[in-house]
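Entry 14. Structure prediction run on the chain below.
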Amino acid sequence: MRIDIIETDLFLSYLSEALNRDNLSPVSGITTDSRHVKENDLFLAIKGEHFDGSDFIDEALSNGAIYAIAQSVHENDNVFTVDDVIEFIGKICSEWMVNFNGKTIAITGSNGKTTTKDLISHILIKSGHNVSKTEGNFNTSIGVPLTIFSFSNDPSQIYVLELGANQVGDIDYLSSLVKPDIGIVTNISGAHLEGFGSIENIRKEKKSIFNHSNKGYYGDEIETSVTLSNHPLANNKVFLKNASIAYEVCKDFMVKSDQEEFSRIIEDFVLPKGRGQIYSLSKGIVLIDDTYNANPESVKAAIDNLARHKTKGRRIFIFGDMKELGENEIDFHKEIANYCEGKIDGIICYGDLAKNTFNNSKSISLRLHFDNKDALVAEVCSLLENDDIIMLKGSRSMELDSVAEDIKNHVK
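Output returned:
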């Protein structure tokens, strides 16, 4: 993880104050990976459960880092010791945000965070605003501060931030740093149950963003009001829900706040990678890449999306393990088998947990299970017929995105 700093003088003033040091030299970027260090970077030697960034300080300095922040003492005078590196950088972020005079929109939720973030950013930019947004998955306790340090501090800016959580306390902490003008919860479902323990804990944690926001929007209370006639995603229920949230948030920022103008603005919006992109292959075959991540609710939504697609061929669902679901993970995977009934024509499962889905989907005529991705790809490519639609969905760690790419390359 690495970012370039635009406001070098401003960041240096906050860093100097936090370290109580004068005469520090300017920092051009920040990185948590010694391999990605550039000249005059600040290296954050984060200490994790299975690693200690302090082991890589010498490498970072030799690669060009001007300073390092660590939790262990180092003989180099350019290495500063703090109690907790993440808390230290969070305090600087909090100071930055207190003095930021632009607008901040922060988004969390179990599903749809990135799509909603990108939709809001797209709408605001096309409405004439200056926007800085979270890139990639920089939505953690270290990713959010680094994201903000990469932004301009100009008061004309609107920050659109994604806040992620794996355990109790994450959203409350991040939103306390950011203090959004507008806080958004897209929805709440059983994602990361292993870290949260219960759906009630998830609900409480996600909604804690509202404790630190001037204004709040809760997606589960917003009706799906947006309708799109000619958009490629017009029949995608999940996208329309995210678009409806974005419309409610953005209509006060738009030149004209009617839905006709909104539809025009988003007509060229493209989904983020792995979140439902549609690819037309040979012989009328369609591939839907929804591989970015998965939990029970997002998988059910994907199945519904697949079922709504009109085709002369078959609807085939390629399903990989859903991770971090806690002690009920087997039941959640069995539940997916039941949910597929009557909606799809084939299910192809990949992974140990997905084998429970395979074993409970006997009513589906085409059902296969694989432990090997190469074998999966070979079989899928051989069984596809004219006008089939295939959708891929699974947790990020299952790397089904590579399966999608292999299929696209074989069925051009």
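The first strand starts at residue 2 and ends at 4.
Filed with the rest of this week's runs.
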